[in-house]
Amino acid sequence: MLIEKIDSLLKEIQQAHADNQEQIEQLRLKYLSKKGEVNELMGEFRNVAKEQKKAVGIKINELKTTAQNKINELREQLETQEAQSDEIDLTRTPYPVELGTRHPLTIVKNEIIDIFSRMGFTLFQGPEVDDDKHVFTMLNFASDHPARDMQDTFFIEQSDPDDVTKNVLLRSHTSGDEAHYMETHEPPIRVLCPGRVYRNEAISARAHCFFHQVEGLYVDKGVSFTDLKQVLLTFAREMFGPDTKIRLRPSYFPFTEPSAEMDISCNICGGKGCNFCKHTGWVEILGCGMVDPHDLAACGIDPDVYTGYAFGMGVERIANLKYRVSDLRMFSENDTRFLREFESAY
């Protein structure tokens, strides 16, 4: 009975055919895997009478060899057909598949998020395609501000100039995410908003039409500029080293008052002066300030009860300081030679 079963399997494997690699693999599993026909026959072989063992053993080996040869033959036929075919499968995975690495901007963004997360900030990500209301109006941008001009910002739709919710655009900063968050959450608020933003700028080694930001917002009772300074000093020392110094210079942003630009002591020359810091010893990394009462009121938060601070930085700027990349365009060109340099950076 066992020899008849083997003869039947031999005939079956000799007549087998396959149209693709998946079918060939199914044949291999059926006959040669641990739960396949050959292994099953080996289990039954133990119960064969002594005088029949030699004949049955020869037959099992013949079946195994035939199955292996048939599968190899089918593979060769399929490879030949594919080689001769004029069709190119552009979706096929290239071989060999190499192990990738995180993008340098992702590495830096995650490090920024980690530092502020340890200070109690939670994450919030808003839409990249937003409306004028959240990107500009609620953030105290004047109606004639240049950012509202088609030449400065990527507007997708302006169906009704008098209705800011009908003016749709690619967000020019992630401050709009903070407006979304304040609309739907009550203080205390401590949130971090990372994301990609877009501005109509000439592409060069120092600028691009899109880049990445991380903005932070803290709103509560009794929040002061002193709190902001201490948080930013802690961030700078965590990111660039414990000896890093900061300075705050008065500046202007529509959504904060008072406002400041923050510089850090140059981490290349240690503040002594070099080409990178233009021999000043300082490098600008972010903007910050106390949230304007107009913004709090526009988002439904009582400015007589609550105060807050906000800050924002470009991820590319921080990455440049950490890795000294001379050309911002390298971050978006997908040159694997450049990206491989960061394989051990996380």
Please tell me about this protein's structure:
The protein is of the alpha+beta class. It folds into two domains: 2-84; 104-342, Bira Bifunctional Protein, Domain 2 (BirA Bifunctional Protein, domain 2), CATH 3.30.930. It is 37% helix and 20% strand. It is built from eleven helices and ten strands. The strands form two sheets. The chain has a seven-stranded mixed sheet with strand order 1-5-6-10-9-8-7, sandwiched between helices. It has a three-stranded antiparallel sheet with strand order 2-4-3. Strand 7 and strand 8 (256-265) form a beta hairpin. The two termini are 63 Å apart.
In summary, what is this structure?
The protein has 346 residues and is α+β, with helices and mostly antiparallel strands.
Q: What would you call the quaternary organization?
A: single chain
What's the rounded overall pLDDT mean? 88
Number of helices: 11
How much helix, percentage-wise, in residues? 25-40%
Give me the side-by-side strand order of the main sheet: 1-5-6-10-9-8-7
What fraction strand?
15-25%
Q: Tell me, what is the CATH class of the largest domain?
A: Alpha Beta
How many beta-strand elements?
A: 10
Computed CA radius of gyration, to the nearest angstrom: 33 Å
User: What class, by secondary structure content?
Assistant: alpha+beta
The general outline is elongated
The first-to-last residue Cα distance is 63 Å
The CATH superfamily of the largest domain turns out to be Bira Bifunctional Protein, Domain 2
Number of domains: 2
The poorly predicted ranges are: none
What is the CATH T-level topology of the largest domain?
Answer: BirA Bifunctional Protein, domain 2
In CATH terms, what is the architecture of the largest domain? Answer: 2-Layer Sandwich
Elements, N to C (H/E): HHHHHEEHEEHEEHEEEHEHH
Largest sheet: 7 strands, mixed
Main location: cytoplasm
Subcellular location: Cytoplasm
Binding site for Mg(2+): 257
Enzyme class: ligase
